[in-house]
Design goal:
alpha/beta, globular, S-adenosyl-L-methionine, NNMT_TEMT_trans, methyltransferase
């Protein structure tokens, strides 16, 4: 009887996820309906669900992200075996960086400028996220030659997460506050600098001019501790 109950629960969950996917396809499937917004509209108009559906439905959904997800697991092996602190700067609603670094980083901080993205990250941390990272985890595991299951990969990453931060790369003090604490005492201070800072397709999309971009890079570098590392994938800024 327990096996039947488990199977029924699995089928029900699968059906629920399929319904969600159908709803998203109906709402977001036509790219001609997408609105093009400036960097200055990011906090008010960025839609995490639309973004995830458009770029992360599968690991091969977008060429740029396919390249990132292919090379990022390999970059990990050029870094120290144990990373004390890691900041994913401008993560948007994505969690593939904590997942990739789950076995190396001891303390992971993720961040974004937009409130909607930080809320989405918090939902993932609480395992209440609507978007499924199943296929992305499977892709990462295949690159790692790992047999770890997607749920276990995500739980390992969640255990390393210490806080979700509010950030603004245009400010000299990039870290503007703590959105929520994760696996830590709220009284614990967030580091002012990190051993590793990752920023993937963040800085160029946060800027409208070359001067803004140069200033954002300068502010980002200040977040890296001496002899630390910057891991980034940057689009061509014109």
């Amino acid at each position: 009887m327990s096996n039947c109950a488990t199977n029924n629960e699995h089928l029900e969950t699968h059906s629920q996820h399929k319904n969600v996917e159908n709803e998203w396809d109906e709402k977001y499937g036509d790219e001609s309906n997408w609105e093009v917004c400036s960097a200055y509209d990011h906090d008010k108009k960025f839609d995490p669900e639309e973004y995830l559906k458009g770029f992360y439905k599968t690991a091969s959904e977008d060429t740029a992200m396919r390249i990132v997800l292919f090379f990022l697991p390999g970059f990990v092996y050029y870094l120290p075996e144990k990373i004390r602190t890691l900041l994913d700067l401008g993560a948007g609603p994505t969690v593939y960086v904590p997942i990739v670094f789950r076995n190396r980083a001891l303390n992971i901080y993720t961040s974004d400028y937009a409130e909607a993205n930080r809320q989405n990250l918090q939902l993932w941390y609480c395992n209440k996220n609507r978007f499924r990272w199943l296929e992305i985890c499977q892709w990462i595991a295949s690159i790692e030659f790992s047999s770890q299951l997607p749920d276990d990969m995500q739980n390992a990453a969640r255990e390393k997460l210490r806080a979700i931060l509010k950030v603004n790369v245009h400010q000299q003090n990039v870290i503007q506050g703590v959105h929520c604490c994760c696996n830590c005492n709220p009284d614990n201070e967030v580091p002012r600098q990190f051993q590793v800072v990752t920023t993937i397709f963040c800085l160029e999309y946060a800027c409208e001019t070359l001067n803004e971009y140069q200033n954002a890079v300068k502010n980002t570098v200040e977040l890296i501790e001496p002899n630390g590392y910057l891991v980034g994938f940057l689009d061509n800024f014109k």
